Amino acid sequence: MAEDNSYESMLCVKPEVHVYRIPPRASNRGYRAADWKLDEPAWSGRLKITAKGKIAFIKLEDRNTGELYAQAPVEQYPGSVVESVADSSRYFVIRIEDGTGRHAFIGLGFADRGDSFDFNVALQDHFKWVKQEGDLAKLEASQSTAPKLDLSFKEGQTIKISIGNIKKKDGCGAKPRPGGGALLPPPPGGKPGGVLPPPGGLQTVSAPQPNTAPLLELGSPVPAAQPSSDMWGDFTSAGSNSSKDAANSGWVQFS
Q: pTM for this structure?
């Protein structure tokens, strides 16, 4: 990934800082702010922390004119460019450069403890971002060189999906629609499947029995016909007698 070195971002601004001349380090125990002349700072002004690409710059400027007093490029934090003192959290030792290759160590102090905390956090956040960018670049490089996994289906390749037993919910069965071909209920008091009685309360008439009585002699009075309770009786007797007369006369009767 290409970096735009022309873009400079602002990380932190503090209006008041002090610069001290520090004695050479006597041992490996670290720097101590008590060894400095804290009541006689060598310079006072404004501090800015800017970033261009991966490098952070600590700039000391005049608070009125903005003229640059000193600058310390920081490529790693914590590191040798910015060191904390052993006896206070408001003082640091920074290595400044003049752009020609020469460098020097000076003491840097903040009047407020919150300003020194912001100074420390601004440098930590910047280099945390630098580390994340480096890890991302390594990951992209490893993915580009690794062979790509082909998960597409080949020609003629199929898959089989097994689905477990699915329980049907209660009440989901098909319900018959009302009036859709359903049989009517039987009438009250009737039996299912029975034959309806004939209308008007009429009863069926049984077939007439052949008359086996002896023929009446000529000249004998014909007995009067007795009234019958069967309303179809007279018609049945008349039909039977006419059939017998036709048979006795030898004529064929067409019905």
A: 0.54
